[in-house]
Design brief:
By secondary structure, the protein is of the alpha+beta class. It has 25 helices and 23 strands.
Length: about 700
């Protein structure tokens, strides 16, 4: 599809709007630069635009109108984002919290069961301090201690608690997942753990009747799936595909779908909404024939079904995008106008970003729009490369062309966020795209007809068989050699270079202009240069990291692309565990570590690297000219320590039974580090001793991982 800017005016509106949103999110303007100032600016710009209409300007000066209009849209994006940032409001509950505060809150979502708690999102209604009540705004996450009384809580219930709320924290380890930043996209900045004896349910319930019905319907459908579909893994897949509910997904199943490039099937997406739109649109064809207003009635029914499904699935960005787009298409049908697809895509993005500007930061939003835009632009051109006369081959090639176009659009995002690329995506999509339609039809039929004797059971068996067939097929693809390229790391700059290469190459492919090939080759050269520089930097790096691991200790000495990881004896056995993957693996991946050597804190035999940059003889480590002393609960100090020894870093792990005050009598230390395996009581005592001696210290549990580069 080829277009010029005059045919896609909504894209020309979308881009400056996005710039304004990103300006607010990524850059801090002076605090006095408020919405009031921006609204005044907007009013002035609008007045100027009205005074100098585009028609009154000569061709030479029309750029003035365009520049002012662009500036106006940037300001609108900035103002809307500022207004949507809940924590900036004067009534936000965090401004009134004190140690003795009581909080009145309303449960906003159904409780989600965790291993030891029940999780819910709440809206803070009031904060009470010394009998003074303050009406507030804002949302928070709460984790209720498990008890029978908690299971009785439901959406809309109002609860009083005196439990403390604290800000969500960023990652404790370098390059770890930033959950706090993720939740900021949903305007959630605080969380609280609420023990059983610190909350009281009031007799009030402020549930929105519409959302109450939505949650009840979703809970009913989840129960139907649990009753009619087989094992836990199959229930998890069915719940994810049909309702977007992923809490029951098995990790092994999730990895299989991710490794084969079929993860989009487990996330309710535009494909699901599109299938439902086509089904409903075709089923209601007769309305246009039996009544002159049948087209309008059909439109309303289609909209109700699409948005009803969207709300039941929880309105993820991909579904919101698809529902908005198909609504625009439906409106176009009512007025006998075919909405140009890029305009419809841009219109849906504008509406969603005006509703919640922070959607721009959501990975699902970015992937959804990148995939659809690439399909709209490239799919037909890829499809025309091969003309199959056989119907089956033509169908296979059509699906493959869609997969290739979507993968071109999303590949940089997948590599940037997930650090992997599924090489057999085209093969897996040949299976999952047709299967998704069948699964969705059978699954929706099951949800609606489950109460009919025998039919509900039959549909459950059929759905179970379909899910197993797809999963078994994907497992075969996963077992193929080089099915997934893992460990891919790109920087922000490389991300944009990669999109530039793909974009310029696509323009050459579509328009056949040699200048785009030249541009693509130039960008490839820039991209490879950055990779070469990145490789050089990784080979020169020298890092000492004391990781934050709950109740465990781990110290990493990275030299070039090799990691020398020290910890408790079972740490290496936990290499595939979530604890290792979430806390240690991200930094090793981003540091381009290609080999890991493990040693126990209390290793009996000395270890030395070939270049002698690391010499380890427990409890001492000599690293890049720096001396490190590792004290554990079993460390035996050699007699040499009776003399005063200079140590750059003293690392205390596993609560060693030492008096820091006495230890410092024979140690000259620059920095003391306490990891998260030490007891709270002992760490507090050590901190007091460090303060007494005027010694710098770092509490990993409090400040996050200790990282130093040499």
């Amino acid at each position: 599809m080829v277009f010029n800017w005059d045919t896609v005016p909504l894209l020309r509106i979308l881009f400056p709007l996005v710039i304004g949103i990103l300006l607010f999110i990524n850059f801090d303007l002076p605090s006095h630069f408020t919405s009031t100032h921006l609204i005044i600016i907007v009013s002035l710009v609008i007045s100027i635009l009205l005074l100098i209409r585009r028609r009154t300007l000569g061709i030479r000066y029309r750029w003035i109108f365009g520049t002012l209009a662009t500036f106006l849209l940037i300001v609108i994006g900035y103002v809307r984002t500022q207004q949507s940032t809940n924590i900036l409001q004067k009534e936000h509950f965090s401004r009134f919290l004190e140690d003795s505060s009581y909080v009145l809150m309303q449960i906003e979502t159904p409780l989600e069961e965790k291993e030891k708690t029940f999780k819910a999102e709440v809206k803070i209604l009031q904060v009470v301090n010394n009998l003074h009540s303050q009406l507030t705004t804002g949302k928070a996450l709460v984790y209720f201690q498990k008890s029978e009384s908690v299971t009785e809580l439901k959406y809309g219930d109002v609860i009083l608690t005196n439990s403390a709320f604290r800000q969500l924290e960023g990652p404790k380890n370098p390059h770890g997942f930033d959950y706090a930043a993720y939740m900021r996209n949903f305007q959630v900045y605080h969380q609280s753990y609420i023990p059983t004896n610190q909350w009281h349910k009031t007799n009030k319930n402020y549930a929105n009747s519409f959302f109450q019905k939505v949650y009840q319907t979703r809970a009913y459908f989840l129960q139907v799936i649990e009753d009619k579909v087989g094992t836990t893994s199959e229930i998890g897949v069915a719940s994810a595909i049909l309702l977007g509910y992923k809490a029951n997904l098995d990790d092994e199943v999730r990895n299989t779908y991710a490794d084969t490039g079929a993860m989009h099937i487990l996330a309710v997406s535009g494909l699901h909404v599109g299938i439902i739109f086509i089904i409903i649109n075709n089923l209601l064809f007769f309305l246009e024939k039996i009544h002159r207003r049948g087209k309008i009635l059909k439109f309303f029914l289609v909209i109700v079904v699409i948005w009803g499904y969207a709300f039941i699935t929880g309105l993820p960005p991909s579904v919101s995008r698809a529902a908005t787009m198909f609504s625009i298409f439906a409106i176009g049908e009512v007025f006998n106008r075919k909405a140009f697809s890029f305009n419809a895509l841009a219109a849906s993005a504008i509406l969603l970003l005006l509703y919640n500007p922070y959607m721009i930061k959501m990975v699902g939003f970015q992937l959804s729009y990148a995939a659809v835009a690439a399909i709209m632009w490239l799919q037909q051109h890829i499809y025309r490369l091969f003309q199959a006369k056989n119907y089956l081959l033509d169908y296979i090639w059509k699906i493959s062309s869609v997969s290739i176009a979507a993968q071109l659009g999303t590949a940089p995002l997948s590599v940037f966020y997930f650090h992997q690329f599924p090489t057999y995506f085209w093969l897996s999509n040949l299976i999952v795209i047709p299967a998704a339609g069948i699964i969705l039809i059978v699954g929706v039929s099951l949800l609606l007809l489950s109460n009919i004797p025998y039919l509900g059971d039959l549909l459950g068996i059929v759905l179970q068989g379909l899910i197993n067939s797809v999963y078994n097929s994907l497992q075969i693809i996963q077992w193929l050699p080089y099915s997934t390229i893992e460990g891919l790391v790109i920087t922000d700059l490389q991300f944009w270079f990669l999109y530039g290469v793909i974009g310029a190459g696509a323009l050459f492919f579509v328009l056949n202009h040699f200048k785009y090939l030249q541009l693509s080759l130039a960008l490839i050269l820039c991209l490879t240069s950055t990779f070469a520089w990145q490789q050089y930097q990784s080979m020169q790096q020298k890092q000492l990291i004391v990781y934050h691991l709950p109740k465990e200790g781990a110290v990493d000495f990275i030299i070039g692309e090799q990691s020398h990881l020290m910890g408790q004896e079972d740490l290496w056995q936990e290499k595939e565990s979530d604890k290792f993957q979430y806390n240690i693996a991200p930094n090793q991946l981003m540091s381009n570590v290609s080999a890991i050597q493990f040693a126990s804190f209390n290793e009996s035999s000395p270890k030395t690297t070939a270049d002698s940059q690391l010499i380890f003889e427990a409890p001492f480590v000599q690293f890049c000219g720096k001396k490190v002393l590792l004290l554990t609960d079993t460390t035996s100090l050699p007699p040499i320590l009776m003399k005063r020894v200079k140590v750059d870093y003293l690392i205390l792990t596993q609560t060693p039974r030492v008096s820091l005050q006495k230890t410092l009598d024979w140690l000259e230390v620059n920095k003391v580090i306490f990891d998260a395996s030490n007891s709270y009581k002992q760490v507090n005592q050590w901190k007091s001793e460090c303060e007494l001696y005027g010694l710098s210290c770092h509490d990993v549990r409090e400040k996050g991982a200790f990282v130093v580069s040499f």
